[in-house]
TrEMBL record, chain B:
Keywords: Cytoplasmic vesicle, Golgi apparatus, Membrane, Protein transport, Transport. This is AP-3 complex subunit mu-1. Belongs to the adaptor complexes medium subunit family. GO terms for biological process: intracellular protein transport; vesicle-mediated transport. InterPro entries: Adaptor_comp_med_subunit (IPR050431), AP2_Mu_C_sf (IPR036168), AP_mu_sigma_su (IPR022775), Clathrin_mu (IPR001392), Clathrin_mu_CS (IPR018240), Longin-like_dom_sf (IPR011012), MHD (IPR028565). The keyword Protein transport applies. Part of the AP-3 complex, an adaptor-related complex which is not clathrin-associated. The complex is associated with the Golgi region as well as more peripheral structures. It facilitates the budding of vesicles from the Golgi membrane and may be directly involved in trafficking to lysosomes. It is found in: Golgi apparatus; Cytoplasmic vesicle membrane. Residues 176-417 form the MHD domain. Its main location: Golgi. PROSITE patterns: CLAT_ADAPTOR_M_1, CLAT_ADAPTOR_M_2, MHD.
Length: 986, 418
């Protein structure tokens, strides 16, 4: 007999019959009836009507029957909350049962009943079970806390279950520890800031001990928890790594990958010259390779993670290329991933092998895979220069196959190869042109048009080719239209005599007949450019393009770092930060790799540096990195009031453009036709009537107009230019606002002021800012403190919506207004901003005192950096003390608050020094000369009212000055001295 | 953690659902069906899918989909490993893992799932622990149960649950104490047209069948342990001893288990047992092609190659084949276009050959792709990597067990490109 008998029905009505059987006196019949009910439930039939009858069977000593009833209860209690109360008594009783199995079962089931009324009764039994003598019950109870928290978080906190749970981390039984960790991790996920898993060396040690003894699943929980810990130094990091490495040989692949995560993270802290570092690198390769011999689903997840690992540490798998070779019967999702990794690992040493493989793949059946293989050949050419020639010839072979989609892919990648190695492979253009008619995909068409436009001077019939595309202009996709527009303008600039008609045709198609604003804007720009200043047009449109590199398809370093911290999770499969897609991730903390210690790399971001150095600083001064990030994250980043550029006045522009076009074109044509054709040169002055009113603005990026291919998105964000939408924005911005910007800045930066302001330094390198680079300085101008920054967009897309916030700092600095970046920042553009600061913000003492932690937000992400401001900008103008007061104060301040410093190599007379210091609001009150030594007595006042008194000793002929500082807050002395030094030496 | 599980048949029916937290409507599977539709071949369904509110992580085994639903960030490998464990357990309990057998045993399946996971956390996944809690159905037991009213649910706490050796129960007793080990090696290889090895590696496992009374402590040592530089152990193996002495020291689980899996990848250690001389060509015009395949022994270490089988997925435009095999039989599946040639033993004196013509759909272009040839074979009494067990010692118990080691080499994913 099998369970399928439970599905047979009779005519009388199933529910009716079951009801009768459930109320039967015979135990056996009862059990069979409950089984029938469960069987119906599993296939999704509604048997909730039997609730009271089933619950009546609960009081039994037959464990199987009890389990079955519990199963039923869990499913239906929610729909019958009042009835479920009937079960409570039995639960409470079962929690006292001498058999631990029954105690555990009861507490487990109770937790699964998601009815508020029941949870109230659950608390007492749960409290007992958490302290049960039997570890099996304790481990079940630990999980129950997580269940209860999911139903009623407040209740769990009020009842103090969280503390009990934390205590269980120190339990003697490893399984209990593992489950406590799992439960805490789950609870912590919904409370990112609760700091539930307070990891310290003691708990870490306990976890590592439990790690060796608990089940495979427990090991996963513990390893994932360990990965959140930041070791204090490289030695602790090494010792954790040593204890985790044996997990790499576990049969469970999830354990292996979690161990890899811990090792990848903690490795960052190990000095690279350490022997152990090398050993560890070697140990990581075999387990990763082994993951690839598992089931295809496991392989897929492993491959996605290996993709990250290879980008972070290519050395681990550099000799393992062959395991990524594609097998005929791999599922397609595995094939595509393997291909990706093959390209990442391709190097000069193995390129021959890789190319042979790729060529093999290009003849396979699956279209997606073949396409990717063809692209991969192109990527190899770009990555490994030595192989470019072979790649190109391989691609030509593939084009000869005439298989439609292969040809199209090949053309797309050859375009990229042209951009990487200009003037090298143009001989193949003829072959490409032969296949013009077979191209039906927008991307391939756009690529081909780009090639024709870019090399118009070498293709005899370029105008015919482009004209043939122009016929169906409105049916083309935007990508192709934009490309065609640019290509024809290029052609016109190269061969102006024959193509005037063509260019006018395309400009009118783009500006008058198109509804697409991107296309229209680009059309107008070209039109205006051609009509006002053909020389500039040439400079802009035919400008040299930056070479593309293989780096463009890599994941951004900051994102990569974060993803490395999430190895083995869904984030690592999607290659997106968890905050981007995990539901309910209110304030998921961005994880970062720890900074390396001891090695020669000093280019760490300031905040990781401060975290690494936190161990030797007094803990009260610097909040730990986690807290700090939390603080900054909680700050309210308000976007600037105006977003985006004002819409261009289209009609006016249009008229102007039309008028100008006539003259402009005539002038171009005139100059060309009267003397025998002289090629346009940038240095020959052209058409005197064209006043150079609007030279191309300095920030203008030539590549944008220079005819990049709009959005070859399949190659990653990389090879192509920004997508059309992004490309369009800068056209209006620089033209309308560029000059005004310049004038604005002229007022701000240009005028020399008395106060010293240090030169700009880079605060946020583009690597860390996802392409946003911020350099800046501080200055005090007419009594107003200003933060002057240069924002540079080094990414490929437009940045908008800038906003700024400071963390609490020693002197309460805070932005006095929003960050004034009103126009979007297009790629390669820089903008200067001066942000006025107030000193009334919240105060927290920092170390060093003049440290300022800043968060800058834009449309891409929020970035954090810290910088140090010269304290001299806090010196207020009314800092001159009365003589008497000075004397009294000087005496009043105890001598041990006096600090003495030397300023070496300062060749100034005492008067000159005094004048210079006065410019920075350090006022000389008295001067005394003793034995050829000038003593200057000076006072200065900080914005928060602290007075600093100084005695500056200058010996004629001796370039070394001595400064004695006295202040009631002695900790500022060091900073004030630095200001003295900076002011005097500049 | 794991929220719910749906079992879906190959045809797309959800025939079982289990929820460990709140109930999630089965409509969530629509996203899965959509992906399945798109993938075409069920093996090509991506294992991790994102839907607006959930993640679907699935595996495909024995023509069944195990689709799990999660709501929070979980390690997908953890879920996939667990799903495979569920499938293994069904296999273990019911002898096979199929829709009909699961439907026949729904209640047991449900009890098992409840026991394996609690609130999404794995609870008991070790076969011996589960079997103590829920006894596998046998004909005898169901008869006894009906007569005595007994139950197939264990009433006491399984002993293995919390001990340091959760994989073994106490009080095991056998009249015949025996320990057998099978060293099984599979060769994964890709050979190119000319027969050169593009890639080759060996996936090895040691499957154990240990039926020993009491708490035996075993030590297995190898003649050449250096071969094993990339290994994954059953949790019972003491890693420290392996690291220091290169021996496997362990208290074995009771019954069948996989002691060790390993991976030999260095090219020179991987012998390729057979060579394939092949020529598959299609005429540029006209509707036919030719096929000629000969297989011969290469590095067989003097052993007989058995169960030799050749599978060739032909291009879709091939209508039929007309071949002559000197040994064995061939079949050509008209719908899947797979040519299967079952050869049997490889006779080195008289090499098997298959040749003849292929008829191609008239008017169809010459097939673009080259079919790849997949080889299956078996060599008894040989571990192709050369791995040899030198001895097995038992401590902790007094009796003398029967011991045995068997070697076998098979072809794994062994492909010849044409």
């Amino acid at each position: 007999m099998t369970d399928s008998k439970y599905f047979t029905t009779t005519k009388k009505g199933e529910i009716f019959e079951l009801k009768a059987e459930l109320n039967s006196d015979k135990k056996e019949k009862k059990k069979e009836a409950v089984k029938k009910v469960i069987a119906s439930m599993t296939v999704g039939k509604d048997v909730s009507a039997l609730f009271p009858d089933v619950v009546n069977c609960m009081q039994t000593d037959n464990l199987e029957l009890k389990k079955l009833v519990y199963l039923y209860l869990m499913n239906y209690a929610k729909s019958q909350p009042d009835m479920a109360i009937m079960a409570v008594n039995t639960f409470v009783k079962d929690c006292e049962d001498p058999n631990p199995l029954i105690r555990a079962l009861a507490v487990r089931t109770m937790g699964c009943i998601r009815v508020d009324k029941i949870t109230e009764y659950l608390c007492e039994p749960l409290r007992k079970c958490l302290k049960d003598e039997d570890p099996y019950v304790r481990k079940t109870a630990a999980v129950c806390v997580a269940k209860l928290h999911d139903i009623n978080a407040q209740l769990v906190e009020d009842q103090g279950f969280l503390d009990t749970l934390k205590d269980l981390i120190s339990d003697s039984n490893p399984m209990v520890v593992a489950n406590a960790v799992a439960a805490l991790s789950e609870i912590a996920e919904s409370h990112p800031n609760s700091n539930l898993l307070d990891l310290n060396p003691q708990t870490i040690n306990k976890l590592l001990t439990a790690l060796n003894e608990c089940t495979e699943w427990g090991q996963i929980f513990i390893l994932d928890c360990l990965a959140n810990y930041t070791p204090r130094d490289d030695r602790e990091s090494q010792s954790i790594c040593e204890r985790v490495t044996p997990r790499l040989s576990h049969a469970n692949s999830a354990v292996v990958l979690s161990a890899v995560k811990v090792l990848m993270k903690f490795m960052e802290m190990l000095p690279k010259d350490l022997d152990y570092y090398g050993t560890l690198l070697k140990k990581l390769a075999p387990p990763l390779v082994t993951l690839l011999s598992a089931e295809p689903e496991l392989q897929y997840v492993a491959l996605r993670n290996i993709n990250l690992i290879v980008q972070r540490r290519p050395e681990i798998l550099k000799h393992e290329m062959k395991v990524f070779f594609v097998k005929y019967n791999d599922p397609i999702y595995v094939k595509l991933e393997k291909l990706d990794i093959m390209i990442r690992l391709a190097s000069q040493a193995n390129i021959a092998q890789v190319l042979a493989e790729l060529k093999e793949y290009a003849t396979e059946v699956d279209v997606d895979f073949v396409r990717k293989a063809v692209r991969a050949i192109g990527r190899c050419a770009i990555k490994v220069e030595q192989s470019a020639e072979r790649c190109v010839s391989t691609l030509l072979d593939l084009i000869q196959t005439k298989v439609n989609y292969v040809v199209q892919e090949a053309i797309v990648v050859i375009k990229d190869i042209f951009r990487k190695y200009p003037n090298k492979y143009e001989s193949v253009i003829a072959t490409l042109c032969e296949n013009l008619d077979s191209l039906d995909e927008p991307e391939a068409r756009a690529a081909m048009i780009w090639i024709v436009g870019e090399y118009a001077e070498r293709i005899d019939n370029a105008d015919e080719l482009l004209e043939s595309f122009l016929e169906g202009f409105h049916d083309e996709s935007t990508q192709v239209q934009l490309q065609l527009l640019t290509a024809i303008v290029k052609l016109f600039l190269k061969k102006p005599t024959e193509t005037q008609e063509l260019v006018q045709q395309v400009l009118s198609l783009a500006t008058q007949d198109s509804d697409n604003p991107d296309l229209r804007d680009r059309g107008y720009i070209y039109w205006r450019l051609l009509s006002t200043d053909p020389v500039a047009a040439k400079e802009v449109v035919l400008a040299e393009k930056p070479l593309i590199s293989e780096e463009t398809d890599l994941i951004e370093p900051t994102l990569l770092e974060e993803l490395i911290c999430h190895i083995g999770t869904l984030a690592s499969v999607y290659h997106k930060p968890p905050s981007a897609f995990v539901e309910g991730s209110r304030g998921v903390q961005h994880k970062r790799l720890p900074g390396s210690a001891g090695s020669g790399e000093s280019v760490e971001s300031p905040d990781t540096g401060s975290a690494a150095g936190a161990s030797d600083a007094p803990p009260a001064v610097i909040p730990s990195q986690g807290d700090l990030l939390g603080d900054l994250l909680n700050l309210d980043l308000t976007p600037p009031a105006t977003t985006g550029p004002p819409p261009p006045a289209t009609s006016g522009l249009q008229l102007g453009a039309m008028d100008l076009l006539g003259g402009g074109l005539d002038s171009l044509m005139g100059d060309e036709s009267e003397p025998p054709p002289i090629p346009l040169r940038t240095d020959t002055p052209q058409s005197p009537q064209v006043l150079h009113q609007s030279p191309s603005p300095p920030d203008y990026s030539p590549t944008e107009l220079g005819g990049d291919l709009g959005g070859s998105s399949a190659m990653g964000a990389g090879f192509g230019a920004p997508p059309p939408a992004a490309a369009a924005a800068p056209f209006s911005a620089p033209v309308s606002g560029g000059l005004d910007d310049l004038f604005d800045l002229g007022g701000g930066v240009g005028m020399p002021m008395g106060a010293y302001s240090p030169p700009k330094t880079v605060w946020l390198p583009a690597m860390k800012g996802k392409g946003l680079e911020i350099s800046g300085t501080f200055a005090r101008r007419a009594g107003v403190i200003q933060m002057e920054m240069t924002l540079t967009n080094k990414a490929m897309s437009v940045m908008t919506d800038f906003a700024i916030q400071f963390n609490r700092n020693s002197f309460g600095l805070a932005p006095a207004g929003p960050l004034q970046v009103l126009t979007p920042l297009s790629p390669n553009q820089s903008i200067e901003v001066a942000l006025p600061l107030s000193t009334v913000g919240p105060v927290m003492k920092m170390d060093p005192l003049n440290n300022l932690q800043v968060a800058v937000k834009n449309n891409i992400d929020v970035f954090y950096f810290s910088c140090q401001y010269p304290i001299s900008m806090l010196f207020v103008e009314d800092g001159k003390m009365e003589r008497q007061v000075f004397l009294a104060t000087w005496k009043d301040i105890p001598n041990d608050s006096e600090a003495q410093f030397q300023i070496a190599d300062c060749r100034l007379s005492s008067d000159a020094a005094s004048n210079k210091l006065q410019g920075s609001n350090i006022f000389t009150i008295a001067k005394r000369t003793v034995d050829g030594q000038d003593m200057l007595y000076q006072s200065t006042k900080l914005s928060n009212g602290i007075w600093v008194l100084a005695e500056l000793r200058v010996q004629t002929g001796n370039p070394n000055f001595t400064v004695c500082l006295k202040c009631r807050a002695p900790e500022v002395a060091q900073c004030v001295f630095q200001s003295y030094e900076a002011v005097l030496k500049n | 953690m794991i929220h719910s599980l749906f079992l879906v048949s190959n045809s797309g029916d959800i025939f079982l659902e289990k929820h460990w937290k709140s109930v999630i409507s089965r409509s969530v599977c629509d996203y899965f069906f959509e992906a399945k539709e798109k993938a075409g071949d069920p093996e090509n369904v991506a294992p991790v899918l994102q839907t607006p509110h959930h993640y679907l992580i699935s595996i495909y085994r024995d023509k069944l989909f195990f689709v799990s639903v999660t709501q929070t960030e979980v390690p997908p490998l953890f879920v996939i490993e667990f799903l495979h464990r569920v499938a293994d357990t069904f296999q273990d309990y019911f002898g096979e893992c199929s829709e009909s057998v699961i439907k026949d045993n729904t209640v047991t399946v449900y009890e098992l799932l409840e026991e394996m996971l609690d609130n999404g956390f794995p609870l008991a996944t070790e076969s011996n622990v589960l079997k103590e809690m829920i006894r596998p159905p046998t004909i005898l037991r169901s008869v006894v149960n009906t007569l005595t009213g007994g139950s197939n649910v264990g009433g006491t706490l399984p002993t293995g649950q919390l001990s340091n050796v959760p994989w073994r129960r106490v009080g095991v007793k056998y009249t015949n104490n025996e320990a057998y080990f099978d060293v099984i090696e599979e060769i994964d290889a890709i050979l190119d047209k000319s027969g050169t090895t593009v890639f080759a590696e060996i996936q090895g496992v040691i499957e154990a069948c240990v039926k020993l009374s009491g708490m035996p402590d075993l030590t297995l040592s190898f003649m050449n342990p250096r071969l094993l530089d990339d290994v994954s152990f059953h949790p019972c193996v003491r890693f420290k001893r392996w690291e220091s002495e290169r021996v496997l020291s362990f208290i074995p689980p009771d019954g069948n288990f996989r002691l060790l899996s390993y991976h030999v990848s260095s090219q020179n250690l991987v012998a390729i047992p057979v060579y394939v001389k092949q020529n598959i060509s299609f005429l540029e015009t006209g509707s036919c092609g030719r096929l000629d395949i000969t297989i011969g022994p290469k590095q067989t270490m003097g052993k007989m190659v058995e169960s030799l089988m050749v599978t060739i997925p032909m291009p879709k435009s091939v209508l039929n084949v007309n071949l002559i095999a000197t040994q064995g039989t061939y079949t050509f599946d008209l719908s899947t276009k797979v040519l299967l040639w079952d050869i049997g033993k490889l006779n080195p004196q008289k090499l098997p050959n298959l040749r003849g013509s292929l008829s191609v759909q008239p008017g169809a272009p010459k097939p673009e792709e080259n079919p790849s040839i997949n080889i299956d074979l078996k060599i008894q009494q040989l571990a192709i990597s050369g791995l040899k067990v030198s001895r097995l010692d038992m401590y902790g118990e007094k009796y003398k067990p029967f011991k045995g080691v068997k070697y076998v080499t098979k072809a794994g994913k062994f492909q010849v490109r044409t």
